[in-house]
Every structure is written in C-alpha cells, then in structure tokens.
Design a protein that fits this description.
This protein has about 110 residues and is mainly alpha-helical. Helix content is about 60%, strand content about 5%. The radius of gyration is 14 Å and the shape is globular.
C-alpha cells in the first residue's frame, strides 16, 4: 500500500469521501497535497476533523486553517511526549465540536 506522500492526488478524493460537507479553498487543498503526512491517512483524517471543528458553521477550510494545523503538526512531531496514549483536552474538545456540528440539525 502506498503512502499519501507517494500519492498526493488521493488526498482530495479521501477528503471528499470522509468529509462531503466540508469545503476547501483551492490553495488550502494544494497545501494539504504538498504536506508529507508521516501519519498517513489517519493523520489526514484527524487533521481535517480539527480544521472543520475550528472552521465552525461556515465549514470552509481556508489556507490559514491549513497552515496553522500543519504548523501544529510539525511542532507536536518535534516535541517530546510522555502521554502518547492519552487524548489531549484540545483534541477531545475538537472532536466533540466536530461531532456536534455533524449531528446538528441547524442549517448554516
């Protein structure tokens, strides 16, 4: 099985498959396609979930959202971790917000 860095053209396809209601600025998708994705598909999905939660009701992922998340990904990859098996409060909050937005009946 090939990695995302070997098949960057799969990234928009995967995003549309897992997140059909989330829209992206064209440049933001290009940035995601150029990123190395050391965590492969799982990391991509997790990153898009966080960006969608942070984007809020507008559900449009901007280049600024992508740049901030990738910067956080790079910083967390360099930081030593003693609790790899635990979810951070920020991640739990992001997931909660994302799930709430997905199940909400409010049309934004």
């Amino acid at each position: 099985m090939q990695t995302l860095r070997e098949c960057p053209t799969d990234i928009p396809i995967l995003i549309r498959r897992y997140f059909p209601s989330v829209e992206f600025e064209e440049e933001s998708l290009e940035i995601l396609c150029r990123y190395n994705w050391p965590g492969n598909v799982r990391q991509l999905i997790s990153t898009v979930e966080r960006m969608a939660a942070k984007a809020g009701g507008g559900r449009i992922i901007t280049t600024e959202h992508v740049r901030r998340e990738i910067d956080l990904e790079r910083k967390s990859a360099l930081a030593p971790s003693h609790a790899d098996s635990f979810l951070s409060i920020a991640k739990i909050t992001s997931l909660f917000v994302f799930i709430h937005l997905q199940t909400s009946s409010v049309n934004c």
